[in-house]
From TrEMBL:
Origin organism lineage: Bacteria, Pseudomonadati, Pseudomonadota, Alphaproteobacteria, Sphingomonadales
Subcellular compartments: Cell outer membrane
Organism this protein belongs to: Sphingomonas cavernae
Signal peptide location: 1-20
Membrane topology: Multi-pass membrane protein
InterPro entries reported in the protein's UniProt record: Beta-barrel_TonB (IPR000531), Beta-barrel_TonB_sf (IPR036942), Plug_dom (IPR012910), Plug_dom_sf (IPR037066), TonB-dep_rcpt-like (IPR039426)
Protein name per Swiss-Prot or TrEMBL: TonB-dependent receptor
Amino acid sequence: MLKTVFLSTTALLAATPALAAPAPDATTLPGDAIVVTATRTPTEADKIASSITVLTKEAIDQSQDIGVTELLIRTPGISFSRNGGYGTTTSLRIRGAETDHTVVVIDGVKLNDPSSTGGGYNFANLLVGDIDRIEILRGPQSILWGSQAIGGVVNIVTATPDAPLEASADIEAGSRETVNARAGVGGITGPVAWRVGGHTFTTDGISAYAPGTEADGYRNVGLNGRATVTITDDVSLDLRGYWTRGRNEFDGFNTDSPEYGVTKEFVGYAGLNVALFDGRFRNRIAYGYTDTKRDNYNPGGFTDHTFDAEGRNERIEYQGTVDIAQGWTAIFGAENERSRFSSESPPFSPVTQGKAEITSFYGQLSVEPISGLTLTGGVRHDDHKTYGGETLFQAGAVWALETGTILRANYGEAFKAPSLYQLFSEYGNTTLNPEEAEGWEVGVEQHLFDDALTLGATWFDRDTTNQIDFFSCFGTTGDPLCVNPATGLSRFGYYANTARTHAQGVELAAAARIGTRFTLSGNYSWIEAENRVAGPNFGNWLPRRPRETANLTADYDWAFGLSTGVAVRWSGKSYDNASNTFVLDAYTLVDLRAEYELSENVSLFGRVENLFDEEYETVRNYGTLGRSVYAGLRTRF
């Protein structure tokens, strides 16, 4: 039903002639807007061949969302699953790819956790905090972003100052004893631009086990800071840091339990920027560091401390950008990434450790042979210390016509090196090969009525081979890999390159302002992500990936300072397992929100999430939040 309403609304928008300028929104991006993710350097949106969505600070504030996950799933091509309420394991998938096929970057530093099973990022502890901007780049992007960028890239940027002194603060409270507060202060003093921010969040939560009765609470605190020192007109120094600590209670397998986990994440960055030849040759030398530590506890259990893991990444990189001539730009660079992990589950398993090193070289050329047409081509070579070399290619074109039409076509290759856990844990296999993917997309975007109405459509296709999956040793005899090489003992299974998948689909988006106060936007995604391994599961849907999703948002600004909005999210059915025997039903969520300006700098806001108290699951037997009511105060100085 909602699909019909959404598509009918889109058709109505296309036929509406009386429109004014559009409001900033997640589904519309003016052609002259500047984005960074696609090329790792500021670039106009209508010169980027890949599909990209930008969430500005205005859009983030307007949504009133607490977590980044809630922001991302309102955009095209993204689905998620969560093992309970806030703070529990959260997996985000772009265009049907695995959750560890997404590169997550915050303030220039890659956020993957080398100690996690797939080496990806868990979105559980990523709250909005002092975030100023989010860019979502869809499709294979390994040329500039390296390993893991099979599904796409999520680039997060925290706030930067633009005044001598500025500050912001939000505080809200609501259902389940939830309190969320965040604040930031910064300024520009001579050659130094600086900002620090922090947040704290607490909630009594819900039972992670859906039929359970014991609430599983969550606590999160975090700090971030950044400073830019302008040494000369052509030389500057960037320093950035991000830290968060989350404590989440969770339940054991199909039962209530007192278990809880503590996750600490630290991100650091230092970069030197040097511009030469009147700014035509820009250089960046940087060092990035991440440290993720996870501990699980079970009070009253056989042992109190049940699990600990730590993953560290160090990356040294150089990037150069050269404006060769009018319309000709070259980007090139080199990176060295060293990662290590340790993990144990006391008292039953010993400490396992491992490390890896990848050295990479890349280059991309962008050419504008005629006005409005931009062609790009790139190549990347990765030298893994264990596996040797891997060379990838990319090519794309975007044509911005004077009619307001933008045509895009892009082909990209990507890879993902085996995670340290897949290599060196008790289930590890050091003979693994990297996962590989290749994909293409074509799209059209139409701006009408002086950008008052934007319509977009994209078709994509992706194949992934050598995908790493867990192979069970149950009932298997004679397989040498069913014996742990470190201990000589039999094991439950091991990781192997046994999977192959195919994904294809369409993403539709529309956004418009009708009159001067009413804004309407929406998107619809149809994504067919299937298992392509010969056997009983061939052709089955990949688990927890709905084939259809849709979002619809309407906002109205009243003349007396009140703004109101409604957001509707519909997710079609999905399956919880590879054999497609457990169905996760379709669901519809409706949220209401409002904000009232008390003065130029202070406003009251409130919202109702899941208005109709819909019961649904994104993971079988794990709970989700019911109707929730929040109210708060926002200040900007």
